[in-house]
Structures are given as structure tokens and as C-alpha cells.
Amino acid sequence: MKLIAIIEKGKDGYGIYVTNLIDHGLTGMGKTVEAAKSDMYEALQLLVSIYTDEGNAVPDELDNPEFVFKYDIPSFFEDFDCIKISKIAAKAGINESLVRQYKNKLAFASEEQTNKIKDAVHELGKELLAVEFK
Questions:
Q1: Residue 38 CB partners (closer than 8 Å, separation 6+)
Q2: One domain, residues 66 and 88
Q3: Alpha-carbon Rg of the chain, whole angstroms?
Q4: Are 21 and 61 within 8 A, CB to CB?
Q5: What is the CATH number of the domain that holds 59?
Q6: How many domains does the chain have?
Q7: What's the pLDDT score for residue 86?
Q8: What is residue 1's predicted lDDT score, i.e. its pLDDT?
Q9: List of the chain residues with pLDDT < 70
Q10: What residues form DSSP beta bridges with 9?
């Protein structure tokens, strides 16, 4: 089963929470995204061990799940601060000031705006992958 894990930056580091587990909470915290992921995986193992230690079947959603990690917009721009907001805004066709408001949590992007930003970031990634040096 694919589990959606949201990455958010807080004042003390990163938090990750899984949104589509119905009967369980699964989170992780850490100073970095990788540390938060590691903490979440440890929490998953603890949860699975509780089931097995008690002789209960592990629910399907906890049995070797596949995680899809998603950033919220402010956390993405915090974690990838080398990316210029002005360039992403231009690629996305969104007003730069509005994207800065999304980054600073002064406004919140609609699903359509979020997808435009995601597409712009992916386009930039493809352009970077095509770069060659001599």
C-alpha cells in the first residue's frame, strides 16, 4: 500500500506525518529530512513489533508499505533554499510575490497553484539533468 507522508519544516527541524492511515498515527521528527524519515521508519517498526509481540496479524497498510513523500510549499523552499523563488514563479506562470507569500505561510496555494509549482520544479530538474560539463 502507498502511504502519503507529508514533510513539514518547524522551528526545531522537520516533521513527517502519514495522512492516509485510518487506525494508526505514524510520525517522525528530526533535525533533517533524512533524520525525520529515519525516526518515522523506527516508529513503523515499533508499531509492527507491537502487533507481532501480541500475536496479532500486522495490518496490510503496515506490512512493507511504500511511502510517497510530499513537501508542503513552505518546507520545500526552506529545504531547497538554493532554488530561486523568482525563477520557479516565472516557470510556473505565477506572480513572484504570491509564491513568496506561499513560502512565508502568508497565503496558501490551491491544488492548481501547487501543481503549477510542482511542474515548474520538475521542469527545472529535467533541465539540470541535461547539463553537461567539459
A1: 28, 30
A2: no
A3: 18
A4: yes
A5: 3.30.160
A6: 2
A7: 97
A8: 82
A9: none
A10: 14
